[in-house]
Write a structure and sequence with these properties.
416 residues; alpha/beta; FAD/NAD(P)-binding domain; D-Amino Acid Oxidase, Chain A, domain 2; six-stranded mixed sheet; 12 helices; 20 strands; binds flavin-adenine dinucleotide
């Protein structure tokens, strides 16, 4: 017999998205169980760059960007890597990714990203309130640094797209940015400062503190691997796991990059890729950054965190099951030493995690078509840490049949 969950809600996945959904559902008075094969915030949500970015609204796929992909992929130090044997599997997603770069779609996608991001620092502060760990989220600028001044031209589409949406941007010289971040290399010629941002100084601990808050509000965390979902005749979802069967009338799939795999046997096909990223942490860096800093050429972000200086980036396409290729983390480490000439690289650790990426840079939030009582909260790609609090609010509103705080049409699954 399945362990029934009365009128409660089951959330599958205890990453930052599942945790924020559980917190908001509990705040709406629901009884909530979160199932994960691992502990809270141990997936992509643990090793990210910690940028909490209300203003990151530029889609991953931009007009004309396809021209950069071969060079990025073939360069040993490029930000994109592909396991060639995986190309046939990736191809349909790649076609959709390139198709989403139509000029007529970009503005709408940017607006929809912004709607999810906009209030994230305040929402995190609200969630952390009363936990005694409020300092896990700090005020920050997001500084993009460039060796070539032409990349900081305000007329470039990526800056124009932000300016048109009121993003607080400041274009400064290399010398000016070094006054803010003295550790940066003298080779940077220009920078763009994005203000009114925040950063997490320990993304894993942020997730764990919020999970603990959820527990204190009655949320139950169960460690189990979900093998199958199916709807029984009474309209209840049965969740078959390696620890037995659970059931609940309403279920949220927040399983990050693994979400599409769980939905496929139900006949629901979502183009979701594992966009694998890496980090290197320098445990005794000897230098400090005061903000999140993105190297615009190497496309990795660096931030001083509780465990040292973390540099995170790379987009590697190799599927969900391939083992990590830590040469990517070593490339980041090498580029980090160029970014910060006095960086002490004696004591490092490496990590790989899967971004759950859709081809149009928008997450999937909403009812799963044809599956009454099943909801999606996944596909946040490069911005899951940023978008988790608003995703939690949207999901709780939907599941509890309450009005949504923002229009959810752009995130619906039936757009695919
Ligand atoms: C290198 C890198 C840097 C990044 N930097 C940033 C950044 O600075 N700012 C930002 O906003 N975002 C960033 N991101 C993106 C962000 O980390 C992700 O979008 C976010 O963590 C996704 O959260 P999630 O909860 O959906 O997924 P996850 O954290 O991966 O959680 C999914 C959970 O589902 C569980 N699960 C999956 N399948 C099953 C199953 N069958 N049974 C039981 N459990 C299951 C997994 O165990 C996992 O715990 C970065 C990502 C990477 C890789």
């Amino acid at each position: 017999m399945p362990e029934a969950h009365g009128s409660g809600i089951t959330v599958i996945g205890a990453g930052i998205i599942g945790i924020c959904c559980a917190l908001e559902l509990a705040a709406s008075g629901k009884s909530v169980r979160v199932i994960d094969r691992d502990g809270p915030a141990e997936g992509a949500s643990s090793g990210n760059a910690g940028v909490i970015s209300p203003w990151s609204c530029v889609p991953q796929s931009l007009p004309g960007q396809w021209k950069n992909i071969p060079g990025w992929t073939l360069s040993k130090e490029g930000p994109v890597a592909l396991r060639w044997a995986y190309l046939p599997h990736l191809f349909p997603w790649l076609v959709r990714f390139l198709a989403s770069a139509q000029a007529s779609r970009i503005g709408g996608i940017a607006d929809a990203i912004l709607a999810l991001n906009r209030d994230c620092p305040e929402l995190y502060r609200g969630l952390l309130h009363g936990t005694d760990h409020e300092d896990l989220v700090r005020d920050s600028s997001y500084i993009h640094v460039f060796r070539d001044v032409r990349h900081a031209d305000p007329e470039l589409p990526q800056w124009a797209l932000r300016r048109e949406r009121g993003v607080p941007l400041e274009f400064v010289s290399g010398d000016q940015v070094r006054e803010i971040e003295p550790a940066l290399s003298p080779h940077y010629q220009a920078a763009v400062l994005i203000g009114q941002q925040a950063r997490s100084v320990n993304p894993a601990r942020l997730g764990q503190v919020l999970a603990q808050k959820a527990r204190s509000q009655g949320v139950v965390f169960t460690r189990a691997l979900v093998r199958e979902l199916n709807l029984d005749v009474s309209g209840t979802f049965n969740i078959r796991t390696d620890q037995g069967m659970f059931s609940s009338p309403r279920t949220v799939v927040a399983s990050g990059a693994w979400s599409a795999r769980l939905l496929k046997p139900l006949g629901v096909r979502i183009p979701l890729e594992s966009e694998r990223g890496y980090h290197t942490v320098f445990a005794s860096p000897g230098v400090t950054l005061n903000n999140s800093v993105l190297d615009g050429d190497g496309k990795f972000a660096a931030s001083s965190m509780e465990m040292g200086l973390r540099c995170a980036g790379m987009a590697e396409f190799a599927g969900l099951d391939a083992g990590p290729d830590y040469r990517r983390a070593k490339v980041i480490a090498h580029l980090a030493q160029r970014m910060l000439p006095d960086l002490n690289a004696a004591d490092t650790s490496e990590w790989m995690g899967s971004r759950p990426s859709t081809p149009d840079s928008l997450p999937c939030i909403g009812p799963v078509p044809g599956q009454a009582g099943l909801f999606a909260a996944f596909g946040h790609g490069h911005l899951g840490l940023t978008q988790a609090p608003m995703t939690g609010r949207l999901t709780a509103a939907m599941v509890c049949d309450q009005p949504s705080p923002i229009n959810i049409t752009p995130y619906r699954l039936d757009r695919f």
